[in-house]
Fold:
Amino acid sequence: MRLLEKIFSKADKTIKFIFLTEDNLVIELSYINKDDGKDIICVPSQTSCKMRCKFCHITDATDKLVNRNLKSPELVEAVNFVYNDLKLGANPKVLLISYMGCGEPILNYDNIVSNMIDLRSIYQDVKVPLIRFAIATSLPRAAHLNFFRLTDEINKHKLPVKVHLSLHYTIDLIRKEWMPHSLDILPSIVALEFYKKMTKNSVEIHYTLIDNVNDTEQDAILLTEMLKNRGIPVKFLFYNEKSTLEFHASSREKLKIFRNYFEKNGIDHEYYIPPGLDVGASCGQFLMDYYYKYNIIDNR
Structure:
């Protein structure tokens, strides 16, 4: 593993680390400091992604980039590099390893579980007071059973893992258009409930608001009806626009519609602008120049 670039955000304290793997593939890790008492390292689960979500920046190049699962030793090496390079051990905090970088963790669940176990043995009580984990998944339809295998492994090893479900839509037809390889909406929510009940870990739903796509009052009503009395909080996300799509982030006025319905029905929620937007550090956003420059490109 070789460091190619270290890029500092001008908007916040996010730092992007771009590495070259032994087989000449590019992976990106991000260090995120929100001044909330923890160090966050966002890591990938794959070298690319085949989920083809319409809003994701990597989708534009998914047929040109080599995609493989990352193994635990690779991720351990990368996390150790970031931790040591930034001298985080000088002021130990809670360490959050977030599998929200490139790729779909459920398609690589066995390596991700191994990585969590490995990192816990390295950091817990040795370097940090507490290590926690987070996984963001859209629940791939063709491999949804992996989610239950992941749940079983997390439960067996008593791993503190918060699962974030990338839902984003209230109508299956629209979700399939934008997220063609993801499971339908209600089965996804039920799977999240199952995970919460089995592991006693936290869960959350991510909902990116896109103007005139999923931000109508009908969407607010449908989402409220699906989630009320389930005890699942929602994080509304700012949409990371990309030049190849003529869609834009919703206005704050649209957000208010959702908040009004959620508050009336007692659904916990927050609005979140992902850090590191200017360095491609947020979920679904990448520094594509480095992928084209260093990755093995399939030109067939």
The chain has a mean pLDDT of 92. The two ends are 27 Å apart (CA to CA). The first strand starts at residue 2 and ends at 8.
